[in-house]
Specification:
The complex is a heterodimer. Chain A is of the alpha+beta class. Helices cover 32% and strands 23% of the residues of chain A. Chain A has a 5-stranded mixed sheet, sandwiched between helices. By secondary structure, chain B is mainly alpha-helical. Helices cover 57% and strands 4% of the residues of chain B. Chain B contains 6 helices and 2 strands. Chain B is elongated, with a radius of gyration of 17 Å. The chains are: A alpha+beta, B mainly alpha.
Amino acid sequence: MPTTVATYPDYEQSVQKLVDQHRKLRNGHLHLAVYLAPAKRPKRDIYLFEVIDNFGGGHIDSGKKLFTFAYGSTPGFPLPENVRLWMILTNPVEFDTAIQENWKRVGEIRDAQRAGNALVLYADTKGKKFWNKIK
Amino acid sequence: MTLPQAWMQQAESDFRTAQRVDINADTRTRCQAISKYQQCVEKSVKGVLDKLHDAGVINVRSDRRHDVARYAVVFMHIPQTRQTGDLLNQLARLFTDSVVEQIKLLDSLVPQYPAAGALAARNHEYPFQQSAADWRAPADEDAFTAGEMKRIRHTAGSLILGLRRILDALELLFP
C-alpha cells in the first residue's frame, strides 16, 4: 500500500507552533508569517515566509533576492525523511523595496496568495499592511 | 541576547567603525580599518560557529585565539546535501577560495610579539621590521596597498552580510 504524502496545508499545526516560537524570540519582532505552497516547487516540502524586524541586520539584498533556504528535520521541527522546510525571510525595509520593485520571490508569494495557497499564521498591524500591499 | 547574537552585534559595530576610518584619501588610517575589518570577520565567524555548536550541528566552538581560517575549514566541511538552497550549503559557499585567502591574510596581520631572534612581522597595530634596523609603523602610507584594502573590504562586507542572515536563520530554526 503506498503511503500518503503530506502536502500543503497538512503541516499547518506544526508550522503554527514554529511561528509561535518565533514570536517569542527577543532578537527580532515578527510582523508577518505565512505558510504557503508556491507553484512549481516540490509539493511535499513546507514553505514559510516571514517578515521580521532587523532580519539580516536590516539590509536590502543587492541582488534583489529575498533570503531563502531549506533545512531538514530539527529537534524543534521534526520532519519525515526527504521533506525540507523552506524559509523565505526578510525585514520590513527590504520587503517594502521588494514589493515596489517586484522582486521574483514576491511574485511567487503573490501567486500563492491569489491561488488560495497561502495561510497567514500571524500578522500584526504592519504585517497585515504588507499582506494587503503584496496583492 | 545569546552569545552568538552578541558576537554578531559586536561584529557589525566593528564593520561600521571600519567603514568610518576606511578613507581612500588617507592611507595612514588603513591599518585602523584593517584592524576593525579583522575583528568584524573574527566575531561574525565565531557567532555562527557557536550557534552551530549550540544547535548540535558541529562539535567545535570558538576559543580565545584570533585566527579564523581554521573555522572556515569547519564550515566548508560540514556534510553538504545536493540542494543548493540548503542553509549549510549556503554557509559553505560564502567561503570561496578568494575569501579564505583574505581570511588567511587577516589572520597573519593580527599583531603578535616575534619569537626570540625573529623579525617583527607586518601587522595592523605594532611596529614591524623589514630588517633588523629598519622599523616600520603600520600607519606608514605604504604599509598596506590599495589592492589589499579593496580585497579585505570586500571580504569583510560579504561575510558580515551573509553570516548575519545565516545566524538569524539558525536562530529561527534552533530557537
